Amino acid sequence: MRHHHRAPSSSSSSGSNGGRLAVPHLACAAAFLCLFVFATQSSFFAGDQSSDLDGREVRVLSGFQSSVQQCVAKRGLGLSAHIIDHCNLVLKFPKGTNSTWYNAQFKIFEPLEYKYDVCEAILLWEQYRNMTTVLTREYLDARPDGWLEYAAKRIAQLGADKCYNRTLCEEHLNMILPSNPPFHPRQFHRCAVVGNSGDLLKTEFGEEIDSHDAVIRENEAPVNEKYAKYVGMKRDFRLVVRGGARNMIAIMNGSDDEVLIIKSVTHRDFNAMIKKVPNPVYLFQGIVLRRGAKGTGMKSIELALSMCDIVDIYGFTVDPGYTEWTRYFSEPKKGHNPLQGRAYYQLLECLGVIRIHSPMRAKMKQDWSDVPNRDMIRSAHAAALRLKKSQAGQSGGQGQFGSCKVWGKADPKNNGRVSGSSDMSDLRKYSNYSKWELMPLEKLRKEARDHFIHMEGVSLYKMDGNKLDDLVCVRHALRSEA
Ligand SMILES: *[C@@H]1O[C@H](CO)[C@@H](O)[C@H](O)[C@H]1NC(C)=O
Ligand SMILES: *[C@@H]1O[C@H](CO)[C@@H](O)[C@H](O)[C@H]1NC(C)=O
Ligand SMILES: *[C@@H]1O[C@H](CO)[C@@H](O)[C@H](O)[C@H]1NC(C)=O
Ligand SMILES: *[C@@H]1O[C@H](CO)[C@@H](O)[C@H](O)[C@H]1NC(C)=O
Ligand SMILES: *[C@@H]1O[C@H](CO)[C@@H](O)[C@H](O)[C@H]1NC(C)=O
């Protein structure tokens, strides 16, 4: 089980970092970004053990760190990046930043600096560009524990800890379980992810948002004439959490082909709702089940990256001056970790993952020359991957299927049909799945078809949340074989 191996000095290295940076690590324990925890704590590079390292990779990554540092200096609105080594850096808020969010559990205010492992972050986020992030039947079929255990975890109120009765579990999932991936990597060029922050009311981004190939919104976000100037009117995808199920019927009224993606678990309220709306509904794949699924914003970005080349974010509270999280359509919610969130989103922008749009950046509009370009990101990714494999003592496994732990084969009979089962309600039978479920693949944009061919028809899924090295890979017939 190679992925359980760690470089021996890795734990002592992160231990000593933990001592020096005790405060960030404390905050990190309480963080809503489990990703951040992952990136910080699983630093795979041990500074004092560089003898077997490939100097070329270290040089590439060091050069990349400098670009990230410059990017943060230019775009970070006061944030600065301090390089520790070719993988690790610390993002610091300016001295005197007012840290007003109090963590009652640890009795501290939010820290003003955050340590990140850029190598891990770039591996993780580049991986999303090739992933399927919607739960499918082929995924459950491929996982050895797929139907018995994993499926049960995605159904609340099942009344059992496992799917001992598979028929019962299928009844819960059938309505929302496509046979193959309904969406594809590179399906869209530009996507807008619209958060719900109150700062959306400060700038009229509506038209700009609507100019995207697909728009992803969250939960109960209203889309109507009243807010059109600020958030636009285009409705394509919506990521929803449990609590949102009840209000969804009213929200989806008049938007029959907007795709709903349930973030964490399905349950009675969702099932009742799904029977009453014609919209396509799916379940998100890739949440971290053990820690619960927090951070809708981060999941929306994962979803977007799995379909889009460029991900523009609007209405995320990422810029200075927030003391609580506001919403554009209702009273503020009690906020949490504004500084930590801001630092991480800034890092993501400088890793080329997202583009941040906010009232404070109106001047920077459409100028991304400060951000490392795709070629730099690709070579940094390749270097980080080689370095990681060489440190884990893995010689092979560097190809595109190097992280496939479980393999499955799609049922060739399903080719051509993605969603829909025989026991759907009449309303669901008329769902307009065809808006985005592009079958045959010939209808996809060229980049997506090229990717499909490059991947030899294999779809990649996460086994569990943020782990890099344990993918579920399902092979589909390429067109020529079909
Ligand atoms: C920091 O924020 C708190 C709460 O918003 C405020 O009462 C305080 O005056 C602020 N301090 C500074 C130095 O801005
Ligand atoms: C993603 O797919 C592209 C081909 O479209 C490939 O070149 C790249 O290496 C892949 N990246 C990862 C992280 O798997
Ligand atoms: C399994 O669930 C189905 C559907 O709810 C039900 O009809 C059937 O009786 C159950 N089987 C057992 C053995 O409990
Ligand atoms: C949907 O909207 C229409 C007109 O805007 C309204 O007449 C109807 O009652 C609404 N339906 C629901 C379920 O809210
Ligand atoms: C379904 O969506 C497609 C693409 O948006 C559209 O062309 C078609 O008219 C829609 N069909 C129905 C029945 O709404």
TrEMBL record:
<dbReference type="Pfam" id="PF00777">
    <property type="entry name" value="Glyco_transf_29"/>
</dbReference>
<keyword id="KW-1133">Transmembrane helix</keyword>
<keyword id="KW-0808">Transferase</keyword>
<dbReference type="InterPro" id="IPR038578">
    <property type="entry name" value="GT29-like_sf"/>
</dbReference>
<dbReference type="InterPro" id="IPR001675">
    <property type="entry name" value="Glyco_trans_29"/>
</dbReference>
<dbReference type="GO" id="GO:0009846">
    <property type="term" value="P:pollen germination"/>
</dbReference>
<dbReference type="GO" id="GO:0016757">
    <property type="term" value="F:glycosyltransferase activity"/>
</dbReference>
<keyword id="KW-0325">Glycoprotein</keyword>
<keyword id="KW-0812">Transmembrane</keyword>
<comment type="similarity">
    <text>Belongs to the glycosyltransferase 29 family.</text>
</comment>
<feature type="transmembrane region" description="Helical">
    <location>
        <begin position="21"/>
        <end position="39"/>
    </location>
</feature>
<keyword id="KW-0472">Membrane</keyword>
<dbReference type="InterPro" id="IPR044782">
    <property type="entry name" value="SIA1/STLP5"/>
</dbReference>
<dbReference type="GO" id="GO:0009860">
    <property type="term" value="P:pollen tube growth"/>
</dbReference>
<keyword id="KW-0333">Golgi apparatus</keyword>
<keyword id="KW-0735">Signal-anchor</keyword>
<dbReference type="GO" id="GO:0000139">
    <property type="term" value="C:Golgi membrane"/>
</dbReference>
<keyword id="KW-0328">Glycosyltransferase</keyword>
<protein>
    <recommendedName>
        <fullName>Sialyltransferase-like protein 1</fullName>
    </recommendedName>
</protein>
